[in-house]
Structures are given as C-alpha cells and as structure tokens.
C-alpha cells in the first residue's frame, strides 16, 4: 500500500499522455451544459447595435494559444456573423496579432469581409498601459500603421475610429493570459470611457477575474476552455474547444484517481 | 502638450474621479509618518505576526550552505514597474548578503532586462557590504530571456545542471510557476514561493515548502531587515486595511438596508 | 551623490506622477505622458543590456569550453541570426514569420503544456488528507476540477451549477480579500519607495 503513496511521476505522465491521445482519437462526446455566464457573454456580443465597431485584442502569445485561439475564433466569427466592423489590436504581447492573423483571414474570407474596410489588424503596439491611454485620445497617432506596416489613414475602416471612446467603439473583446491584460484595458480604456468590456480568460485566470464579472465591470467572460466550448455551441460553430472537452473530462478523472490512490496509501500507512 | 482633460476640477484643484484616491494616498502617508515617528523616538509600535515563509529564508540558505550547493532567486517575470518585482528586490539584498556571509553561491535568474541590471548592482553591493567583493561573480546574475517559456526552459536547465539546494521565487509569476516549482520539488530543493498573482498562489501552495500569500511579499523587506522604521510602514498598511474594511462594512450595510441611498458610492467616485 | 542623485530622480518622478494623476492641472499638462515615453526608451536600452549579458556569459562558456558549451554556440547563432533576420525583413517577413509560427510558437506551447503534467503530479503529491483543512481543500479541488469538465454533469446534473456557485461566492470572497490586501501592500511599497525608505531599486541593499 505504501507504493500507492509514491507512484513515480513518470508513470503519472505516461498514463496522462495515453489518456489524452486516446480520448482525442476516440471522443466520447459527453454533452456540454451551457452556463448562465456563457449565455450572458454571448448576449453581450449578440445584442450590440447593428453596424457596431468592436475591438478584439489578443493579449497573449504562443504559450496560451492552445486555450485562447478558440476564443479568438469564436469572438471573431460571432462579430463577423453579426456584421460588426472589427479592429484587431493589442499592446505588449508582441506576437498575438501575428498568431491570430491567419484565423482572422480565414473567417473574413468565409463572410466575404474586405481587409481595411470591414476589418483590420493593427498589430501589436509597444507600451502597455501607455499605449492604451494614448489610444483613448488619438488611436491614429498611437498606432500609426497596421500589421503590414501600411499607414492606417489609408484604410477606410479607420475613418470610423479615430480614438477608442464610446462614441466610436461599441465594445472591446479582450483575450487575456497575463499582464497587461483585461484589467489593464478596464483601468485605462473601458472604465474611463464607459465602453463595454467582454473578456476571454484562460482557466487558471478565471477565479481571479470573477470579481469583475460580479461587479458588472466585465459584461461577459469566456471562462477557460469549458466556457469557450459553451460559446461555440451558442454561436453555432463547434470548434477546437468542444473537441477538447472529452480530454478535459478524462484528465480530470485521472487526476482524481491518482489523488484517491495517494490518499489510500497515506491512510493505510498512517494506520500502521 | 496634450489637453487630455476637459472636465472641471473638484475642490478647485483635484481631477475628477481622483479625490477618493488622493485621500487614500494622503491617509496612508499620514499613517506611515505617525508610525515612523513613533519608531524613531523609540516608542512602541505594534508587532508584526510571524511569517513562516520569511522565517524559512535563513533556514533555506543554511541548508544550501551545509550541502555546498547554490541558492537561487527568481524575482518573477515582470519588469521593474511591477510592484511585486520591487518587493522581490527588497528581499534579494538580504538573501545575497546571507549567501556572501556564509560563502554560498547565489544565483539570480531574471526574465526582464531592467530588474537584471538592478539585481546585479544589489548583489555586488551586498557582497561588498559583507566584505567579500572578490566572491561576487557577475555571471551568477543572469538575464536568460524576455520570452516567458524560453526563460522557463532555461531555469529548468539551470536547476538540472547546477542543482541549487534552495529555490526562492518571489514576484509576479504566471504559468511558469507550476513548472518551476515542480522541477524544484523533483530536485529536492527547499522552496519558498511568493506572489500576489492569485491565479498562481494555489500552485505555490501545492508545490513549495513555504508560500508567501499576496501582501506578505510586500512586507518581506521590512520583515527581514528587522528595521523598526520599516516595520512601521507595514503596520501603517494594516491600518489602511482596517479603514478599507470599515468602508466595505458600511457599504454592505447601506446597500442592504438603504439601496437607494448612494452617498457613499458618490463620495468614493468624486 | 551616487545614491542621492537617483533618489532625487525617484522622488521627483513620483511627485510628478501623483500630481499628473490626481490634480486637474497635472492632467492638463500631460507631463506623465513624457515620463511614460522615457520609460519605454529605458526598457529598450535595458533590453540591449540583456543582450550584452547573454553574449558575455555564453562567450565565456565557449572560450573556456565549459560543459555544454556547444549549446552556447547554438544560442549565439540563433540569437544573432534571428535578430539580423528581423532587422532585414521586419516582423512581417516570410522567413521571420515562418520561424516564429513553426518553431517559436510550437516550442512555447510545448513548454506551456508541461503545466498540465506538472499539475497532475503536484496534485497527487499535495492533496493528502493530513489535516481537516487539507481534507476540505482536497474535496473542493476535486469537486471544482470535475465540475469544470463535462464529466461532472454526466455524473450528476447539478454538478456544474454548484461549481459555478462555489466560484462565484466563497472563491470570489477569498480572491477579493487577497486582492485588496495585495493592492494595499503594493501601494505601501510604492509609498516607501517615494519616501526614500526603501532603496533596493537603486541597486543598494534595500532599506534606509
């Protein structure tokens, strides 16, 4: 029984890999129940006025793309489906816009959106909170060029958004995995300018961000991979998050099993 | 010059929406000034509770000394404008001094170039103050990478190759916290983890021997220095916390009893 | 003067920031914007310093043929090669972008994914029912973990509902408490630096 307390970590890892691979190859298709938070988040995007302009900010880099790429996909897809104009921009997370560009291009193609007219990728701008403060007073001056280094004045969509204020921007959709992130947007843009902020958070950041949802400062939040799967169902485009749910279930069960085994070993050893 | 603010001033001089903030700055300043004055004149100031994670710092260094292996310090992955990084800097000098005193190798591993430059200077100064400037090796203070996971991989490599006996991680950590703490645990290191990033705290609690939770890291430099003046600033911080607690209590009662009465909310939004 | 000069700069900068943030005139003048710009420039200079540090460390390793020196050679080739490629092509260059998307992104994701493995081994080791508190911790951890995956609802229809309640009430209360304490702590640290009581950031040994 003492052995149960000291299972080699490599055994745990190997079994973990096997379980992940197996459930990816042979998904069970457990149903995903949609939470109130997912419905609230969906409604926050869905109920923006027709012809709205939204900012989508991928505040992440390659490390978090496994969890946040599906969120970018559903946000971009939902905004495109509703016919909103879309501006993609972030600050400090240098590679975010670079990573999401192919996804945006693919969805834009699907809906026949024209780059520079219906959507634009401004790329990543240095400065964090400094950039955001500058963008509130003068987005053109703060951003200068788009992702491909062309002056933003040459794109018709930018005539609609000279600065990030409630007059020009209907909502900010921020995908966040660290600092600067959604709270930075809240502090420097959304709270002072009274623009709705809807966020997507990696699972481990969800507990920390719950207070902002409860206080109404975030109008909605995609809470981790599970939240994204729920959003995919709501928006009618099942994607990578839905596919990941069986894997999440099996890994959660496996970890539970190891915790139970460890405790059986601990209790029996203690009794001796 | 930009004319960023068109709103009218409050009370003639203050910016709109900033009155409550300014009062809090002022109040904390007053609390700290009162307590520092008391400390300087030798009068009694309240004690700070024992913080196990900070008490363990010297124990960790002692163990590394006995084993003849290095102590490593990671001040988070954020830059110098992050308060948690500043809190870590306050702690580094103590750790570096102890290492210099006991002739234990001290490794500082950074993910941002700004703290790197400062830490090199702090460590050099610590060795100098301990009378051992020759023992300071600039190569032991390292900037590894500004890329989060490249930094993480580098640290794992250093853990494997140089096998520190003690791992102190205090600052702003993200997804790398679990990887670093577990690797440290596999290596049998004595580990102290501290952060105010609540999403990473559970990982430190699970994988480290000692965890510094939230505000404890900000008390670290005062606690370790055992300097009464700095103790006073920590007590001042607690006084402010009690005031905030009182405002929350009054706000909660008012929101329950008289939800239409918004004077407190209006006052805080001034 | 070696310490006093930087200290004066710190105090003056702090006062300017407080003045710009809280006072009407300060906001109008926008001096803080200029300070922010200087900060950005200093970060770029410091990045160059980091570059020099990495070169120095690995150059020494190569010269002295330390253990694993071949990796230092590789690091130098990749670091300088990618920097030069970036300077030539900018970040939108085909080869630069390809390397990022297919090597850097893949490697970062791989390291990040290690978290999942390490969480499982840490959970196995840490969640032992040694005390009453540890037992409560373990029960809630397992409950929330299963409830955040569809398996929870498959076992019991109300599982995710109660998980959401736990997240929204006790979890949030705890988070708010820690956040408030940490914010006040950060605030007090800032004030200590402003008042010159804490000087570690100036490269000294910390306190005054």
The biggest beta sheet of chain C reads: none
DSSP strand content of chain C: under 5%
Main sheet attributes: strand count, strand direction, barrel closure of chain B: 6 strands, parallel
Number of separate helices of chain C? 8
Produce a short descriptive summary.
In chain B, 55% of the residues lie in helices and 11% in strands. With 270 residues, chain B is of the alpha/beta class.
Characterise the protein shown here.
The complex is a heterotrimer of chains A (272), B (270) and C (208). Chain A is an alpha/beta fold and 272 residues long. Chain A has two domains: 2-27 and 248-271, no CATH class; 36-238, Rossmann fold (3-Layer(aba) Sandwich), CATH 3.40.50. Chain A is built from eleven helices and six strands. In chain A, helix 4 runs parallel beside helix 5 (96-111). Chain B has 270 residues and is an alpha/beta fold. Chain B has two domains: 10-47 and 227-251; 52-218, Rossmann fold, CATH 3.40.50. Chain B contains ten helices and six strands; from the N terminus they run H-H-E-H-E-H-E-H-E-H-E-H-E-H-H-H. Chain B has a six-stranded parallel β-sheet, with helices on both faces. In chain B, helix 1 packs antiparallel against helix 9 (228-257) and helix 5 (148-162) runs parallel beside helix 6. Chain C has 208 residues and is mainly α. Chain C folds into three domains: 1-67; 99-126; 129-208, no CATH class. In chain C, 82% of the residues lie in helices and 0% in strands. Chain C has helices at residues 4-22, 24-29, 31-63, 69-89, 94-126, 132-147, 150-155, 159-194. In chain C, helix 3 (31-63) packs across helix 4 (69-89) and helix 6 crosses helix 8. Chains B and C meet through helix 1, helix 3, helix 4, helix 5 and helix 6 of B and helix 1, helix 2, helix 3, helix 5 and helix 8 of C.
Question: Which features would summarize this protein structure in a list?
Answer:
heterotrimer; A: 272 residues; alpha/beta; Rossmann fold; 2 domains; six-stranded parallel β-sheet; 6 strands; C: 208 residues; mainly alpha; 3 domains; 8 helices; extended
